[in-house]
Write a structure and sequence with these properties.
The chain folds into two domains: 1-58, no CATH class; 64-114. 56% of the residues lie in helices and 16% in strands. It is built from two helices and three strands. Strands 1-2-3 form a three-stranded antiparallel β-sheet, with no helix packed on it. The longest helix has 47 residues, at 67-113. The protein is elongated, with a radius of gyration of 26 Å. The relative contact order is 0.07.
Length: 114
């Protein structure tokens, strides 16, 4: 049996996924942009029309991990980055409060000396 090309396999996978998505009546608003994307126009919270694209990316096959392991590793990496961002934001908030308190103390001290 002849091996099917990566291009043909990836296209078939994207077509399958888009077919599943488009079965929902809500997706009538989406139009095919190209083989990899569908798009629609929606109104944002400011009342402006916005163009939204939904794309399907087929990950490369890997010899060192299964598709399930690859998906889990990407989810884990995202979760870890979000936790790092939250920790950084918390540290920044503490520093801002500390700096504000220091400035207010200096201001009060300067006021006392005058």
């Amino acid at each position: 049996m002849a091996k099917i090309t990566k291009t043909a396999v990836d296209k078939a996978l994207r077509d399958d996924i888009f077919a599943i998505l488009m079965q929902n009546p809500m997706y009538e608003m989406f139009h095919k942009i190209n083989d990899r994307q569908y798009g629609c126009i929606v109104t944002d919270l400011n009342g402006h029309h916005r163009y939204i694209r939904i794309g399907a990316i087929v990950a490369e096959e890997r010899e060192d991990m299964t598709a399930e392991e690859l998906m889990q590793s990407e989810m884990d990496a995202y979760t870890e980055k979000q936790a790092e961002k939250a920790e950084k934001a918390a540290k920044k908030a503490v520093k801002i409060e500390k700096d504000k308190a220091k400035r207010e103390a200096e201001k009060a001290k300067a006021k006392e000396n005058n």
